[in-house]
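Reminder to self: tokens first, then the designed residues, so the page reads top to bottom the way the pipeline ran.
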């Protein structure tokens, strides 16, 4: 399906967006390593149901601008992009939906600008309450392996690995972190060799996952061959900076109506904090209307299970 695209001036940068339909706006924020095409199943369903679906290539990705400075990728920049996009499109409000890294953007859109984002839906990544110390220093590391987000901190290392075989690495990521990938321990999914790295040593699948077509893979390959990986990885390099910037909102709640979905085999389900956090999510998101773990589903939830995700999302939107 060919969804129309265009570039829109948003503050100091331009964002490439896909948009479909008319009606109340639903803003769709993708994660890593993806682009706005990750939402094509949802965009058609939303448009058919009477909504204006808008999915940007997020800052640093695909056809959008990629500022050079690491510090230009904080949550304040990313939320600012989404507010600016509403302004550019003439919309007072939107429901914001995010997956993977797009989920923290969506949660913080709701937290920081409740006047502009009337509801929030998050896939994969729940609301993480701000901790008492910067996060990077607490990430696990051994003599030979380290947490993948710690590996991403070092400029140039992950970029070199990922750019060496864009197609192969994107295919590996799609398969290994999906519900169709091999069974693996949480440590095997999240801890990586210090010298390289995130995906290089993982085997290629014999074919494509059932939910990914060759034409779709081509779209992602072209997006990253255009943008490279530095902008997307810079999101991770702002984790401690984000922690410092969010100090004024320490302990604050996201009070809008909310939806949270995660795959049973999502790599995040291996994070030790998840067993503690998920039963307590309403402490910080008191108007959480629906929370669900999709059995057998991996990380790429809206691509692996579009029918179920669309049904939950449309039911949530209809309840607002």
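Designed residues (320 positions):
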């Amino acid at each position: 399906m060919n969804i129309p695209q265009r570039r829109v001036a948003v503050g100091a940068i331009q964002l490439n967006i896909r948009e479909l339909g008319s009606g109340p706006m639903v803003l769709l924020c993708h994660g890593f390593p993806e682009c706005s095409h990750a939402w094509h199943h949802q965009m058609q369903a939303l448009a058919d149901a009477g909504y204006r679906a808008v999915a940007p290539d997020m800052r640093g990705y695909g056809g959008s601008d990629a500022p050079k400075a690491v510090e230009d990728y904080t949550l304040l920049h990313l939320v600012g992009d989404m507010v600016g996009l509403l302004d550019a499109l003439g919309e007072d409000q939107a429901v914001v939906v995010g997956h993977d890294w797009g989920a923290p953007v969506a949660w913080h859109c709701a937290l920081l600008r409740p006047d502009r984002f009337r509801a929030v839906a998050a896939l994969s990544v729940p609301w993480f309450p701000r901790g008492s110390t910067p996060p990077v220093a607490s990430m696990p590391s051994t003599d030979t392996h380290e947490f993948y987000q710690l590996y991403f901190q070092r400029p140039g290392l992950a970029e070199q690995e990922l750019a060496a075989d864009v197609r192969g690495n994107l295919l590996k990521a799609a398969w290994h972190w999906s519900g169709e990938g091999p069974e693996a321990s949480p440590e095997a999914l999240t801890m990586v060799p210090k010298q390289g790295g995130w995906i290089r040593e993982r085997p290629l699948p014999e074919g494509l996952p059932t939910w990914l077509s060759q034409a779709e893979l081509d779209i992602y390959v072209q997006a990253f061959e255009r943008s490279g990986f530095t902008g997307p990885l810079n999101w991770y390099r702002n984790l401690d900076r984000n922690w410092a910037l969010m100090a004024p909102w320490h302990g604050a709640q996201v009070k809008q109506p909310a939806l949270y979905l995660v795959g049973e085999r999502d790599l995040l389900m291996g994070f030790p904090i998840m067993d503690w956090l998920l039963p307590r999510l309403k402490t910080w998101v008191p108007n959480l209307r629906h929370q669900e773990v999709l059995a057998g589903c991996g990380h790429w939830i809206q691509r692996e299970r579009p029918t179920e995700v669309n049904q939950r999302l449309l039911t949530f939107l209809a309840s607002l």
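DSSP finds 13 helices and ten strands in the chain.
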